[in-house]
Every structure is written in C-alpha cells, then in structure tokens.
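Sanity check

After download, print the first record. It should look like this:
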Amino acid sequence: MKDMSIRAGKAIRPNSVLEEEFNAFQQRYPTYDRTRLLDELRRTEYSRLERQGQIYLDYTGGGLYSDHQVQSHLDLLQNNVFGNPHSTNPTSQVTTHRVESARRSVLSFFNASPDEYECIFTQNASGALKLVGEAYPFTPDSQYLLTFDNHNSVNGIREFARARGAAIHYAPVNPPEMRIDDGKLAALLDQANPEAHNLFAYPAQSNFSGVQHDLAWVDRAQQKGWDVLLDAAAFAPTNPLDLSAVHPDFVCLSFYKIFGYPTGVGALIARRGALAKLHRPWFAGGTITVASVQGDRYFLHVGAEGFEDGTLNYLTLPAVEIGLEHIQRIGYDAIHTRVACLTGWLLEQFSGLRHSNDLPVVKIYGPLDTHMRGGTITMNFFDPRGHFVDHLRVEDRANQKQISIRTGCFCNPGGGELALGLTAGELQTCFSLKSRMEFQDFQRCIDDKSTGAVRVSVGLVSNFADVYHLIDFARQFIDKNSDEV
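Expected structure tokens:
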C-alpha cells in the first residue's frame, strides 16, 4: 500500500519522481516511519492544507490548529454561560474554574511544580517579556546580559535596564554555526555584582538560525548570581521543556506557536521567589486587592493576579487547555522526530544545490546538521556570480507557488547582523544619516549586502511532500543571475 502522506495538493502517479525521492528519504531517515500518526492527523484534522494546495513552511512564525481544537472550543462556548471572572456570581464562578484549570494545565504541561512556579497569562511572549523588563529591580549596580541571538522583545528589555542605569552586555554568537561563544559568555557571567540584581536572558532555540542553546547555562548562571530569563517561544513547539529538570526564573512563550489556536494568549511562567523580586510600575483593574482615590494607596494581589492587567481573555483560555491536550495526545517524540528527519533532509538538499560553476545556490546561516538545532533554516540565495538574490524576490516567487515561507530579519537583529556580516561601523554610519529610519532607508544605505534572509521552518504536520516541493522550488535559481529573478 502506497503512503498517502506524500501527496500534497494533488494526487501523484505511481513511480513518480516524488515517490522515488520519498522512498530514498525513508531509507536515509528510517525513524520517520515512527511518525506516521502525524500523516493520519494531517489527513483528518488539517485536510484544508491539501484542499487549498497550501505548502506551509512557516511554523516558527505560527503553528497550525486542528479541526478538533476549534470544534471542541466551539462546543464549550455553545454549551456554557461564562461571565467576567472578577465576581462570585454563578457564571463568573464557571469562568474562574476554567481559568484556574488552564493555569494548572500549563504548569503540568511543562512539568512545573505549583509550589515553585506561577503561571501568568499574557497577550503573547512579548507581553510576558515586557512584564519582566518593566518590573525587574534594575539599579545602577545591576547588569543585564543577553546574547546577540535574541528576539527583539528580549532586546527591548535593555531600555528598561538603561533607564535605571544598569550595565548592558551582549554575549556573542559565532558564525557560521551561530552558537554561543562559551568562553566569552562564561567570562561575562563571572562579572555579576553579588550585591545587586542581575538578569541574563537567552533563547532555548533561536528563531533566526534554529540553534538550540544549551539549557545547562540556566544553572551555571544562577550559581554565579544571575536571575535567568529563558525565551521558549521557538523551542516549545517541537521540544519538551521540563521545568523539574531545568529551573529558569522566568519562561516566556506564545501558545499559537505551539498549536496554532488561540492567538492573543501567551504566558510568563515564573518562579515564586523571582516573581517576588519584581516591582510593578503601576496597578490596573484586576491586579489589586484594594485601591483608594482619597487614601492614595493600593495593594497588589500576590502572585499571578498581580500581573494580569484588566480582565483576562477568559473566553479564549479554555482553548489553551484544549491545545495542550492536543499536543499531549500526539506526544513530543513523534513531533520532534519528524521535524529532525525533515530538517536533516532539507539541510542536505540545500547544501547540495550548485550552479554550473560549482558555486553554492544557497548559504545557510547556522548548523548544517541536526545536532542541537531545531526545524528552522535561514539562508540567502546567491547567483553564479556570488551576488545575493533579494530575499523579497524569493518570497514573491514562493508566493506564486502557494509556498508559505518568511523573509526579513525575523525580529532578531543581532543574529541577522552577525550572519549577514553587517558591522557596527556600517550600522552606526547608516543610522547617522536620518533622525528617523524606515526599513527601505536601511536597505539603501547597506550597499551591496543583504539586509534580510529567507527562513523556512517545519513543524507539527509537515510532511515529505512539503519539503520536496520547497527544494524543487529552490532549483529554479540554479544558473540564474540576480537581475533575472
């Protein structure tokens, strides 16, 4: 019986090139066979991909939801009456029960003891990071240490640190593999001021290169006097994060990255001791036990409620629990194995693409094997003369083929600057040209260097046909000059 999982968009003929390639792929990656349940899941719960002929390769940008998730949430809404949880009336109590159940589900999913951790619901991972940044007790004696490879929302915390006089340090990552420079990071960690609060932030997995940075840095940093903020947004969709084995002080994530639906909900998972260090710069509805106008005082809730401004997105939170249950039924082993197999094949195929003069068609920014890396691959296309092909033109051509990829710097400027070879001098000269700069201005002042890249990412229900069609698409750039694209 032929494997139906390789059919994307339309049926294929027996003995077609796609089927032959799939058979060769299975021999190269035999563990892929253990993930067949994902093919059945795609057929029954994600059939809209095939119906619409979509090749979705932007899982780092956002996950995909199943039909079951949407229907289960709809059934819940249609069969209950939910009131604002900031009350004790019957409908409010139903909502409060669901909210607390969702909190417990999040902690359980990440194996985080409720005695050690709190789950604070936020709008997304960026909202979680802002909560930490604005409330962390930075002083002029404090240090904020982060890696070059970080999301903009982690970089943004430096503005809170700078406003309070704290020192800011960046730990470099080394091209071409884009891994942390262990020696330099260790030296920077040694500089913690034991008399002050120090914060170290890094991603468990890079949203730029796919590199998975060593979680052992959490304990090493804590032993040297740092609170550790771990960005798990790109890591959690395809990897288990066990907070009984590794104990970061703060973890941020967005649920739509993991299971697609709902959007607009994330979480800050914080150790209770670390949470007690934070000092909120304001209070809001829902965060206080008592507030007075004439008495000019307010008293914040202790724990999660003291950080959840206003009314929670309470109709959406039950969908978080449904999504977590969806991933638990599938199991991370199948998801991780499939992603590793497809990523390994893509890396081999991209690395093998050559022009007639033997120059490479693509340059990958990051590891060329699957060791300590996820399913995100970032690259640029180059022509036979060695000139880069504008990433926006690559995306436009992919759009015409119904292939969803992403281009730009992916809100990770540090990773992009290092990978693309942009120097501090070039950037400073560029930024001195205008008081306000739009991206088009930035592109024009970097001369002949690329200001972005092409990112593809596989995930939950990716299959071989998806990556095969991507490589088939990439072959069109062989022996094409950049001005021909």
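If your output differs, re-run the checksum step. Summary of this record's structure: The longest strand covers residues 117-122.
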